[in-house]
Amino acid sequence: DDELQTDGNRSGHFRNGDLGLAPTNEEVIRIIAAQLAEIGDQLDREIQERVVNGLVQHFMNENLSNEEITRHMARAVRELIQAIPSDMEQEKAMLVLAMVLTKKIVNTVPFLLRRVFDTTVNYMNRQFHNYIVDMVSAVKL
Questions:
Q1: What is the DSSP string of 48-105?
Q2: Which of 45, 49, 107, 115 shows the greatest Cβ crowding within 10 Å of its Cβ?
Q3: What is the pLDDT of residues 82-108, one digit of tens each?
């Protein structure tokens, strides 16, 4: 099964499809993960509890489709990006915000892990596929 890794190690596979990345050096992945984790720590303080609780309610609503929940997550990320300093690359900030929201939701309601993880991967694949590929290919060791 898929595993949610937060230490920069790659594990499992993308259930919603491969990102299409060429085989990469594990060190490249670790560098990118460390950079994203640092940004995530900064953004973590910016996310208000009401945003997390609102998303938790959407994830808990079994009448909502995955597509509807993905739209709610995208809307929350767009709203949160307004408070991010303009010197930060917007796509990177949005990517990290999605990951931080995922962490906060799962910390609030752990039994939602699978649904939240699948939604986040789907969202990232749709919104940031090219950005992620470019980010991995741009890292020089």
A1: -HHHHHHHHHHHH-TTS-HHHHHHHHHHHHHHHHTTS-TTS-HHHHHHHHHHHHHHHH
A2: 115
A3: 877 677 788 888 888 999 999 999 999
Q: Do 33 and 86 meet the contact criterion of CB atoms below 8 Å apart?
A: no
| Tokens encoding 18 | 């491969």
Asked if 81 contacts 90 with a C-beta cutoff of 8 angstroms, the reply is: yes
Confidence check: pLDDT of 140 > 70: no
Within 13 Å of residue 14, how many CA atoms lie on the same side as its CB?
A: 15
Quote the pLDDT of residue 10. Answer: 46
Residue 54: both structure tokens together = 């609102």
